[in-house]
Structure formats: structure tokens, C-alpha cells
Amino acid sequence: MIPFQYTKANDVTDAVRLIAANGGAKFIAGGTNLLDLMKDNVERPTTLIDISRLPLTSVEETASGGLRIGALVPNADLAWHPLIEKRYPLLASAIMAGASQQLRNMASTGGNLLQRTRCAYFYDTATPCNKRQPGSGCSALNGVSRGHAILGASASCIATHPSDMCVALAALDATVHVTGPTGARVIPFADFHRLPGDTPHVDTNLGPDEIITAIEVPAKGFAANHSYLKIRDRMSYAFALVSVAAALELKDGTIQEARLALGGVAHKPWRDVAAEGALRGRPAEEASFARAADLLLRDARPQAHNGFKVDLARRAIIRTLSQAAHGTPQSQSNKTIQ
Amino acid sequence: MSTLNNTAKTYTGTATSRVDGRAKVTGAAKYAGDFNSGGLAYGAVVEATIARGRIVRIDASEALRVPGVLDVITHENRPRVADSDEAWKDDVAPEEGSPFRPLYDDAVKFNQQPIALVLAEEWEIARYAASLVRVDYEKQPFVTDVHRKRDNAIVVAKPDKPRGDVAKAFAAAEVRHEADYFIPTEHHNPMELFASTAMWEAGGPLTVYDKTQGVQNVQGFLCSVFEKKPDEIRVISPYVGGAFGAGLRPQYQVVLAVMGALKLQRSVRLVLTRQQMYGLGYRPATIERLALGAQRNGTLDAITHEAIGITSQFEEFSRNDTGWSALLYASPNARYEHRVAQLDVPTSCDMRAPGAATGVYALESAMDELAVALKMDPVELRLRCYSDRDQNENLPYTSKRLRECYREGAAAFGWDKRQPEPRSMRDGKTLVGWGMASGVWEALQMPVAVRIVMTANGHAEVSCAASDIGTGTYTIMAQVAADSLGLPIENITIRLADSTLPRAPVEGGSWMAASACHAVIATASEVRKELLRLAKLMKTSPLADAVEEDVALSDGKLVSRTQAERGVSISDMMRHGAVERIEREKTNEFAQDNAHARNTHSAVFAEVKVDEELGVIRVTRVVSAVAAGRVLNPKTGRSQVMGAIVGGIGMALHEETIYDHGLGRIVNHDIAEYHVPVNADIHDIEVIFVDEPDTLINPLGMKGLGEIGIVGVAAAVANAVYHATGVRVRDLPITLDKVLTRRQAA
Ligand SMILES: Cc1cc2nc3c(=O)[nH]c(=O)nc-3n(C[C@H](O)[C@H](O)[C@H](O)COP(=O)(O)OP(=O)(O)OC[C@H]3O[C@@H](n4cnc5c(N)ncnc54)[C@H](O)[C@@H]3O)c2cc1C
Ligand code: SF4
């Protein structure tokens, strides 16, 4: 590992002051992604600012009926939190679909948003990668692209965002609370992650000196009709080829409101309001789901090795919406796809 | 061994917990990278980032400026090593070729080749400094894709001779099946990283703790490479955290650790990173072509099996992929051909059941396709062409209970309820598929020597240079020693894997269990002879007139086999004779028998459930019926086979070393991205040991279980996937995208 300084932040203000004062510094929370990248010399922070002990570990109810989740709540604690299990089971389920128990114990809510792509070239400093080294080229474009994006990619980068939790947060219309040198602000989830464009090295719209303090989910949790389905190459401990978060509000079999977000297909959790709109007012049945899926995938453009993802995404969307409609969400523990 | 009628416990054949289990789970067991000494220096490897070329310039100045860096060794400043290919050939090296020599010269022969060793006071310093070594290359064109070399692969000689006229028989066959199958490169990925700690002692020998399957192989190799006398280097490897064949040949880290210690005159530890382990050997990617010709009644007329495996540009590694059908299926006409494609990659190497895991996958997939073409049950087809002889050698077997494997496996699985049509069985929305395959492996035995030191307190130390790579060698040797010395297992201490101990070959090929156990028996009988001599010295000895064949050791006593009450305790005899220890060393001896073939066999039955819409495959049940002679320890034996089945499921569905052939580099070089099955992928596994008495092979009638468990599993799963979906995926691994897209194409 490349030598670095280590310092601890006392509180949020201190953390922001430290990061603003140290060019090349990075926050470390659970370290499950950052340390791996440092060992591979991909991330090369000059200073690590340890925020893991900051008191951002509570889950509180907000005045508007939602929940405010501290940025340092461990993924595992969040998934098992009684309020999350009861009111936002979609979020709990998506978290449980990710990584392993050990990693979920260490990983933080804020860190999960900022985990970087799993594109293998990004991890290998012996290969060109625009995200790691702007201007060096994209190895995946002419290389191995089976796991890469089918939506929103650019000529500079075709990587995907690997998070499961974020797919649920996108579907739930969460907001990201951040604090920087000039104060606090709130970023809607849809605006938090970016598409690669010609600046793939910038993953998010978080300012360089800003810290995530909390994630807020609004009152509507879709606890009755939701599902998170993750399709991957083995039944656990693998990143999604395609994942789908679906949430429905139903009345007499008709869809009142729908949420649909995808993971593993784009540089950000992919939410499509047009596809959601197409579900509204429709009967909760396969034909409606298929139409929404086609709409969502209308601009899908596969890479050399992942043509299968378009059809797989379509099938996964239909399955997940149908699980949600039937009130039989995908289980994350019984070794099978329902 | 025990016609003796006594109450003493018999360990042989009884489920016995691992004698090293406690040390392993408590962390007391030390592995190669755990050993420590004062003044230990740490190494870190710099790897090549091109697939082929020359190092034009290597600049370590920046690395050397890092405080704590002791040295950077490259081809320009390395200690002297031997120059001949012969000197670099270890016991397991392929006959043809020039073994890889780390830091030898400026040539880059494969990506991830070690090109410099940084030595520092601390591991992190070494690792950081390694990132500062600057290398300029002259790149040369390279090929890493076997498909691009298919047409100029070279034929390698294999012992199996053709039979009859296969071309004519194939042309005349009533039913024919012909297809290509593909197994990608796989890496062993043992849990323990490759590591070596070389302990420097001024004036003394260099003691090297190494992760290896054969300490004496490594010791001999190091002595020859570094031009040392045998007593100048000692190699120890008490525990190995898995190897699966990766530790058969000395790996480059042991050469580098020794180079470092010689150069610094200091102890050096070198542990590879997980990523660096993808720069070592691997199971070769192999294209297999099968052509089967049969009569309508299911008898075979023609078998052609051709294989093209990959190897490096500098060594020709290959194993027997093609000859296995002759051990399973009678066919008057057969032809085999093995070729190797030389690519700009490291030399391939043995991985669990080398040759058979791949070759039998292809053969058994082809047999399944033939059964479909014949509209015949797959088990029935195999019985129709069952061979009681090894047709390559034209020999009968010492034992072959494969018919019983089919029968008992099928019964346990419920095979008779199988509906033959693909896509005809369902469980709700999921398609259910049942597939089967045969397995076959060798039952080899090798010379192994064992030393036993028995002390008057009724304890015995049994030692041998063999390794226990996690398979249970410590345990079965303790079982056999306890029985043949008549002592409780707690009184037996097993010492293994030190090059100064009695001679043993590498642990591989499934030969160690039978070889080491018979060495224990042979040596124990020498101890018994000595005890009888002592017994006879005693006045009024109840064994005064006993002869060797009449006595046995049991329950701490030397007793008459016919009259168990006639006996003397070991301690009495030794005290009386004023003998404190009896030490004997002996090599096993097996009766010369060139008139029989020796093999293990299995029948594997697998159930898969496939989500039709999403293509997701689960292997919900596997039943494996294994005939491998007498099973010494059903507990460790079952674990071996279960682990091998999991490996076979991985081979079928997950494992693949993925190359970017444009860069000539492996892209999934860590275990987050190189998939092996996880718990959620594994459901019911049932292992049946078919009773297989074998009075010919060796006195214990045992054969070895290390590899047979994986052979056939991938084919059984692939055949089950076909039965479930109607899609025949002939290139492993069978991922969901292949099932989805090919079904649509069909
Ligand atoms: C083998 C493996 C498998 C995995 N599988 C999955 C999976 O299947 N699905 C999945 O979703 N995830 C998976 N993960 C990723 C895991 O979820 C993330 O690594 C984890 O969520 C990151 O959280 P952390 O707290 O450890 O972040 P860290 O590693 O500490 O930090 C990550 C980044 O976030 C920044 N950061 C952290 N907290 C803050 C904050 N409050 N404000 C501003 N910046 C911050 C850090 O500076 C750093 O750049 C896997 C990880 C591994 C190693
Ligand atoms: S896809 Fe993006 S992350 Fe991957 S190599 Fe290309 S630029 Fe780098």
C-alpha cells in the first residue's frame, strides 16, 4: 500500500474541515471498498480521515413520517432494524442480497453509496481505464464486457454501479443529506450518481469536500407490495448481472403507483419514471409489466458480451413486478429464486 | 490384519475425526507463512504487465530510496543459479521443455511473470516499494487464446494405442454422435496463499518453510537450482491449506525466498497475493472432440477422443484426457489424439484429477448425447457397453464394482422415476432435470518409507516426508499405526512433511493413502519382530515358542493370535530388555502385478432445477456412488468426496479463468470475481461407498479417494441441465446466459 496519513474526525464539522484542508484526503468508514482499492494502488489517498466513530449511527423517524438513516449505520444493522423490516422491507431485502454477512457488518450506509464499480480493468493498474486514469482509454469497450452496462453508457466508460442497497433507495425516492464547507444540502437520490459521459472518473455529484451525513426515506415504504430480485452467476456473494427493485401500490388489482429501479445495468441505479408512469392505472398483470419493461429498455444498447442482459432485464422486471403484485417478495435466504 | 478376537478398538475402517483438527481450528497449526524468526525480512513480487517481450530497462532506484527497503533483486543482480534445464526440472516437471526460471534473464514469457523481488524490513514497505519499480518493455506479439492456435497445436505422445479401424467402424455405425466440448482454464484457488519462509542461519543449513505437496521435491529442486549440497537446505511444510495440485511443482515464490535469503544473508518471508496466484499453473483450457459410433442396441463400435490442451511456449504439459473410455466402455475400435497449443501463458499443471476431470466430462457428455440419439436410458447405455477389462492394456481389474455404483446410486437417487423426454419434469414453475455420468480414476501406489520410534511408555512416533494437504494423511496414518502397533490413537504422534524424514513422493494422484498406510504396516511389523525378540528373552515368557506369524500387537501387548490370553505388555518387554526405544524404518513393498489394471470408479447422479424464464440453475441433489476399495476412514473419506463434488459443481456452473485475449491478461484474478460455489449453491449431497473387496491390489484392499470424487460430476450436471431445458451447453461453465440465449436460438 502507498503510505498515507491517518487522522480521526471528532465530529462532522471537523471531518469537513479536515477534508477541505488535506488535498488528496479520503474519508474511511467501513473500509470494505476503499482498503481493497488502496491495496491494488487504485485509490491513493494521501490522508485517511476516519469517520467511523462519528455519531451518525441512528435511525430516526422524521416529522413527515419518513426515516432518517445515519451515514454510519452498518448495512447489517440497517437490514435488521425493526422499522426498516416493517416499513421498508424492500430496502432490507436489497441490503441482504448484497455482499456477505461479514462485509455487511463492516459496510456503512454512506460508504455503500460511494462504492466504486467492479469493472475488473478499473482494479488492474496494468490496464488502461478512463475511470481510474482519465484519458487512458476504456479496456472494457474492446475487452471483456459481460458484466457491463446496457443503459446510459458512453464511449468513455461502460461500467456499472454495483450496489444493491442503492437500487432500493432509488426506488424509494430517498434523499441524501450532505454537509460541506458552506453548509448542509439535500440531494435527491436520482441526482446523486452520475452517468459516465466523458468524465467517468467522477462517480457522483457529491462535492470533493462534502460528507454524507444521512439518507432519508420518505413515508411511503410500499411494505405490502414490493420485491428485490437479484440475478447473478451464483446464489450468493456475487454482484448482480441484473437486479430489480419493484414497489407497487394497488387498489382492487389496479396499480395506483409504481416504482421500478434496476441495478447492474448502468453507471447508476437506473430508475425510469416513464416506465413507472406506464404502470399507473393499469391492471397488475403480466401484460402491464411487460409493457413497462419494454419501455424501460427502449434505449438499451448492449456491449459485445452482454447482449443477454437486455432480455434478462426484461424477464427480471416482469418477474419482480409480479412478485411485488402478489405480495410474495423474493426471499434473500432460501437458496432459490421464487 | 486382525483375525484377532479382542475388545481393543479397531481404527481402520472406522469414522475417525482428524487428529490435526484441533490444531487447525485453534490456530495452533502453523503454515508456511506463519513461521517467524528474529530479523525476518519481507519480500514483495513485481510482476510483468505484458504477455510477451523483453525487459529493456528496469529501474529500482525509487524503490531503493524508500526507508526500510533492503534490496531489489532482478535478473541483473540476482544470486547465481544453475543454467541447465535439467537443473530446473523438479520431480513433476514435464519431460519436454525448459522450466521457467524466475529472474533469470530479460525475457517476459507471460503476463504476471515475476520480474523483481523487493526485500524490506516490513511487508507494507516491500509492497509499496514494489509499486515504484519502473519497467520498460519491448513488446512482442502474443497469443493467449487456444482457439487461435487450434490448427497448429502439436501432437504429444500418449501411451494409449489405437484399436481396430475406427474410421471404417464410425462410417458404418447405425447411430453416430460427434461434437466438440470445451473446458476453460481453471485456477486451483486453495485457501492458503502460496508462501515460503527461508530461515537463514550463519553456517547452518537453510531451513525453508514452504507451501508444497512435496517437501523432498522442493528440497531436491532448490539444491539443484542453487547448487547446494543436500544437507545445506531443508524443507518443511507441516500443514497445507489446500493445494489441489497447485503445490506439486515448486512454485516461483520458494525460489525467490531462497534468493532473497542468500543475497541478504537473512531470513526472508514471501507470501504471494491472491492476484499473484493467477500467475502460477492452472488446469489447462481444453477443447475435446468426441466421435461415437454405436449400434441400435447400445453397443459401441467406434470411439474417437481428441483433445487440445494449452501449455506455455516453453514446456509441454499434458495429462491423459483421451484414454478413459477404454476403462469404461467396450469398443473394438478406438483412436485417441492429444495435442497441446503453446500459448504465451505460464505452464499449465495438475489440478484435481488432471485429464480425467476434463476428458471424462467430455466423454460422459457425449455418452449422454448418444443415449438421447438412441432413445435409451443413460444408465442402460452404460451397462450395454460396460467393459470388464482395461482395453488400453487389455487387462482385467483388481476390482471394479462400477455396476454396483450404477445400481446403488440410481436406487438412492430414485432414477427409475425419471421421465426420459427433456423438459418433461417440473416442480411448479421450474424445470427439473436428472442427469448422470460415470467417473474413473487411477489407484496408484508409490514407494514410501516410514520410521517408527516406539518408547517403553507405549507411545510411538511415526514419521515420513509425505505431506498432508488437508486430505487426512495424518489421520489415516495414525489409525493404521494405532491398529498395527496395538496402541490407542492418542499414543501415536505423526510427523510429516520434513525433507529430512524418510522418503516419500509428492502427495498427488490419490496414491498417498495406500502408499503411506502400507509403509506404516511394513515398519510396524519390523517393530513387532523386535518386540518378539525381546519377549523371548524374558524368562517364563508366554511367547517363548511363538513365531512371527503367530503374534500381533493389541491393547499395548504382544499377544498370540490364537490364544489372546498369552501376551506380554510392551513396557514389560522393553524394560526387561533394557531397551528404551525401538526405531525401525522401512519402505512399503507391493507385490509386482502386471496382470491387472488398478482403478477407482463412480456413478454420479445429479438433479438440477432451472428457472425457465431467468435461466438460473441450481444443483439441488447429487448422489455419488464410489467404488474405491476399502475405505479406511469413512468420515475423512466422505469429506474428500463431498469437497470434490462441490468442485465438480463449480466446474459445471462457475469456474472459469477469464482472459482478455487482446491484453493477454487474466481479468478475474481474485476470488470475488473468480467464482467457486458458495454455501447457497450447495444443496443435498449424498456419498455412497460401494462395498468393493479387493484382495489383489494390496493387503488392506484400499485405493485412494482424493480425486475420483470430482470425475464425472460436471458431466452429470451438464446432462441434467440438458434434460431440464433441452439446451446442450458444450462449453463450461454453464452460465444462465448460455441457457437463455441458446434456448431462444434453438
Ligand atoms: C467481496 C465484496 C463483495 C461485495 N458484494 C456486494 C454486493 O453484492 N452488493 C453490494 O451492494 N455491495 C457489495 N459489496 C460492496 C460493499 O457493500 C461496499 O464495499 C460497502 O458498502 C462500502 O461501505 P464502507 O463503509 O465499507 O465504505 P468505505 O470502503 O469505507 O468507503 C467507500 C468510499 O466511500 C467514501 N465514504 C464513506 N463514507 C462516507 C461518508 N459518510 N461521506 C462521504 N464519503 C464517504 C470513502 O471515502 C470511500 O471513497 C461487496 C464488497 C466486497 C469487498
Ligand atoms: S468500463 Fe469504465 S471502469 Fe471499466 S475500463 Fe472502461 S473506463 Fe474503466
Task: Describe the 3D structure.
The complex is a heterodimer of chains A (about 350) and B (about 750). By secondary structure, chain A is an alpha+beta fold. Chain A is about 30% helix and about 20% strand. In chain A, the strands form 3 sheets. In chain A, strands 4-5-8-6-7 form a 5-stranded antiparallel beta sheet. A 4-stranded antiparallel beta sheet of chain A has the order 9-10-11-12, with helices on both faces. In chain A, strand 6 and strand 7 (about 185-190) form a beta hairpin. In chain A, helix 12 (about 285-295) crosses helix 13. The longest helix of chain A is centred in the C-terminal third of the chain and has 18 residues, at about 310-325. The radius of gyration of chain A is 19 Å and the shape is globular. Chain B has about 750 residues and is α+β, with helices and mostly antiparallel strands. Chain B has 3 domains: about 20-30 and about 445-590, 2-Layer Sandwich (Aldehyde Oxidoreductase, domain 4); about 40-140 and about 195-280, Aldehyde oxidase/xanthine dehydrogenase, a/b hammerhead (Aldehyde Oxidoreductase, domain 3, Alpha-Beta Complex); about 365-445 and about 595-745, Aldehyde oxidase/xanthine dehydrogenase, molybdopterin binding domain (Aldehyde Oxidoreductase, domain 4), CATH 3.30.365. In chain B, about 25% of the residues lie in helices and about 25% in strands. Chain B is built from 17 helices and 31 strands. A 7-stranded mixed beta sheet of chain B has the order 3-5-1-12-9-10-11. Residues about 1-5 of chain B have low confidence and may be disordered. Chains A and B meet through helix 8 and helix 13 of A and helix 3 and helix 17 of B. Iron/sulfur cluster (SF4) binds next to helix 8 of chain A.
